[in-house]
Amino acid sequence: MSLYTDYLNEIDTRKAEGLNPKPIEDGALVNEIISQIKDLKNEHRDGSLKFFIYNTLPGTTSAAGEKAKFLKEIILGDSVVEEISQSFAFELLSHMKGGPSVEVLLDLALGDDASVAQQAADVLKTQVFLYEADTERLKAAFTAGNAIAKDILESYAKAEFFTKLPEVEEEIKVVTYIAGEGDISTDLLSPGNQAHSRSDRELHGKCMISEEGQAKIQELQKAHPDARVMLIAEKGTMGVGSSRMSGVNNVALWTGKQASPYVPFVNIAPIVAGTNGISPIFLTTVGVTGGIGLDLKNWVKKQDANGNTVLDENGDPVLEQTYSVETGKVLTINSKTKKLYDDDKELVDVSSAFTPQKVEFMKAGGSYAVVFGKKLQTFASETLGVDLKSAFAVSKEISHEGQGLTAVEKIFNRNAVGTTPGAILHGGSDVRVKVNIVGSQDTTGLMTSQELESMAATVISPTVDGAYQSGCHTASVWDLKAQANIPKLMKFMNKFGLITARDPKGVYHAMTDVIHKVLNDITVDDWDITIGGDSHTRMSKGVAFGADSGTVALALATGEATMPIPESVKVTFKGTMADHMDFRDVVHATQAQMLKQHGDNVFQGRIIEVHIGTLLADQAFTFTDWTAEMKAKASICISNDETLIGSLELAKSRIQIMIDKGMDNDAKVLAGLIAKADKRIAEIKSGEKSALTPDDNAKYFAEVVVDLDQIVEPMIADPDVNNNDVSKRYTHDTIRPVSYYGGDKKVDLGFVGSCMVHKGDMKIVAQMLKNLEKDGGKVEFNAPLVVAAPTYNIIDELKAEGDWEILQKYSGFEFDDLMPKAKARTEYENIMYLERPGCNLCMGNQEKAAKGDTVLATSTRLFQGRVVEDSSEKKGESLLASTPVVVLSAILGRTPNMDEYKAAVEGIDLTKFAPPLQKPAAAKSVHF
Question: d(Cα 145, Cα 148) in Å, to the nearest integer?
């Protein structure tokens, strides 16, 4: 049986599922297709032609390599295909984006046939994805006097690949579609439980919103063929939670424009909007595809005659509508006036969506082309020896004389690339920065690999200090989907230059550690910038930004990222933490006290500069991690010198374990990180360069002072699933004390795990079980308790310290790496489950609670359907709390009252925190 026959069988299977043929990435299959095209009598010739022209993936896929070679044969006349003329062959090459296609075009442009050379040159002038090997060929030919090479370079120096593109339309007609009321999680656009299909764009597109929603979008498109559908989060923010490139891909698939007629299911230019705008991390992803993200401001707080905000019976602001965006309403976006109109009536200023940089992304069809275009224009100008006359918008540089720098401003100034020499930049400046650490996670990694192939990248940028490909999101269940996707991903990323959780050669033991914990360990400088393919990329050293798979690919390929320097909100603490409180309660209280102090969420879209310098990085990450739920763009932990040294020493020890396991690569990336950590420790100890701190006269958007004395009860983040105002459900903003539940709210399942917990949390579980047995003689669970340590390192440390043995004693199930689960658990007994390190229930793509359950968890997400789906009788709900609250609730089968809670944690070493200025001896947790 041939590969082509297998492909036809796959097509039949997909057709039965309502799907088109899957785009081809395998070069061997393309070779068979080419053979059938050459055979004029072959029964499959017509189909083969169609697949070759319209269904072969571009970039650096092996399929693209074979396609480019065959097109070269056709252009040179070595092969004749009646249906593919020489000019059509050039057109096909022009849509292949780089890698093999650029190599072929350079062969032809620098060849002996003058006619062919000029045609190839004309196509090359439209291409931007050139790498060093390509530009060196051009430079060498130019130096040798090649006229065609000079012609191409002169075009590049003028950036004609960009300037000759059509301008963004002045008037963009849209028809509205309200995708949901309140904040819209990216889980609605790309559900976590469908993560396995993300790299199959057409298949994954079928999971967006609902079948009814998809039908409504098509109905709107049919009724308004001259308008583009605009997806709206009514009374909320669009795209909260994850960056979710697959979410933007899905929106573009249903509502955007096809990027190329010869590349199926790759669409660009979606239009999304929200009453409160677009989540910052999601807005970056929109820019990757050249889309538009609008802040509608169509609901505002009602004011009384004195200008005070009117509150409802719950103390929440009353909102009133300023204009309607009900589904089916036709509006016009004017890209020149930067306004939204209803006929001739101006509704709102949308200039934030049309900055010069964003308009360039729209014009170029996405941000990648702009990033590579700038590099290409600079290269050409330098090679020709002419002054650079940039065709791109001048980066905005903002500098306030006499004003100090926040922590993030210091980091960006230190890592800035291509800025005015000597300039000190403040918030709002557009900056290109060096990226030190990059993380790719396993449910978005295949898309990252596709993005790398599409931009013709083959090796990691040498300026990146370290990069890691995780296996945590697929750790729980090693099913057929994981077995099909993950080895392929690990092989690609390992070859590209990343440290990979699974060894493609099978030498070292699979490490399914939660990606954020690994990235937190391999970030070994508090001045570093990290980019990661997950919204919880929020390291407690340096500054880290969660990003879509495309931005991650760009960071891997170029070692850079581009963004404005964000504003900062300073968070400090006063008072004393009560003995019965856990640091997780401080995290939740921060959000509650901020909302009380400021009314609005001042964290949204900004950097949270949190002064928790007495906590080691592992524990501080509990705060920085949760800033994703606070809707912040990122977070920076301001640490004390002594604490930072302790964090770096711990990181070194864990990196050394990775090396001992055999995970380092030929470039000795991990060894290099240890050397970098040693250098930073020496700088701190010598006084040469202390731990990062902001300037005393730095300017902040706002300041929040958290009063620890007010935190007297465990704090629970509640999805508030039955709130009469739908827009207030699933927001992460409803923070309630445990007493609110009266000690009688039924809990169906407890979960201790995810990136929010650290080694100390695992020790708390063990200590609580020992104490409860001592007091009651026996520990009986009235609800299942699922425990997943975030890393293998932590388990090894717990084993050495005797805590793992305690957990084993009380467990009814313990993971076995030799026999991993092949299917997700659907029913739970009232026992404790010790699960494999990884995301487990938090991700919702493999394990889930039973429908309609009330789950109490230490994890990060409470979105509808994420951890638990609704049943026909009851809404599922995922409440988030500290480890001791979760453990006790699982044992009781309900939320505890305060007396029960205090008794259960008496004598327990909870994660403690004291404001850095006090520096008491007890500030460090005993867990370290």
Answer: 9
Q: Transcribe 277-317 into DSSP letters.
A: -B-HHHHHHHHHTT-EEEE---EEE-B-TTSPBPB-TTSPB
Which DSSP category does 819 fall into? S
Pure H helices in 837-897: 883-892
Percentage of the residues of the chain whose pLDDT score is greater than 90: 79
In whole angstroms, give the CA distance from residue 784 to residue 801.
Answer: 26
What are the helix (H) ranges across 55-197? 62-76, 86-94, 100-109, 114-124, 132-143, 147-157, 160-163, 186-189
The pTM of this model reads 0.88
CB 247 within 8 A of CB 286: no
**919 has pLDDT over 70:** no
Q: Which residues contact 38 (CB under 8 A, 6 or more apart)?
A: 79, 81
CA proximity to 763, closest of 909, 580, 623, 925: 909
Strands 749-752 and 854-857: parallel
Coil, helix or strand at residue 802: coil
Give which of 618, 552, 586 is closest to 285, Cα–Cα.
552
What is the chain's mean pLDDT, rounded? 93
Give the Cα separation of 338 and 473 in Å (integer): 41
109-166 pLDDT, tens digit each:
999 999 999 999 999 999 999 999 999 999 999 999 999 999 999 999 999 999 999 9
Residue 294 corresponds to which tokens in the numbers above?
Answer: 């609008």
Say whether 184 sits in a helix, a strand or coil: strand
8 alpha carbon, distance to own chain's centre:
35
Cβ–Cβ under 8 Å, residues 74 and 92 = no
**Polymer length in residues for the chain:** 928
CA distance 682 to 678: 6
CA pair distance 890, 883, nearest whole angstrom: 11
- SS3 at position 44: coil
Task: Calculate Rg over the CA atoms of the chain.
Answer: 28
Strands, sheet with 560-564, edge to edge from the N-terminal-most edge strand:
416-417, 430-434, 560-564
Residue 594: closest CA among 571, 622, 610: 571
Tokens of 292: 């538009």
- The pairing of beta strand 257-260 with beta strand 263-268: antiparallel
Q: Which residues are CB-contacts of 604 (< 8 A; sequence separation ≥ 6)?
A: 237, 276, 280, 630, 631, 632
Considering Cα of 96, then 439, then 789, then 751, what sign does the dihedral take? negative
Give the DSSP letter string of 560-614.
Answer: EEEEEPPPEEEEEEES---TT--HHHHHHHHHHHHHHHHSS-TTTTSEEEE--TT
* pLDDT for res 918: 46
Q: Determine contact, residues 209/154, Cβ cutoff 8 Å.
A: no
Assigned token pair, 707: 């009063």
What's the rounded Cα separation, in Å, for the pair 507 and 139?
A: 42
Over residues 331-377, the pLDDT tens digits come to: 999 999 999 999 999 999 999 999 999 999 999 999 999 999 999 99
H or E stretch covering 437: strand 437-440
Is residue 854 helix, strand or coil? strand
Q: Shortest CA distance to 184 belongs to which of 217, 231, 233, 229?
A: 233
DSSP 629: T
623-659 pLDDT, tens digit per residue, is 999 998 888 999 999 999 999 999 999 999 999 999 9
Q: 801: which 2 tokens?
A: 């310290």
User: What angle do helix axes 27-38 and 3-16 make, rounded to 10 degrees?
Assistant: 100
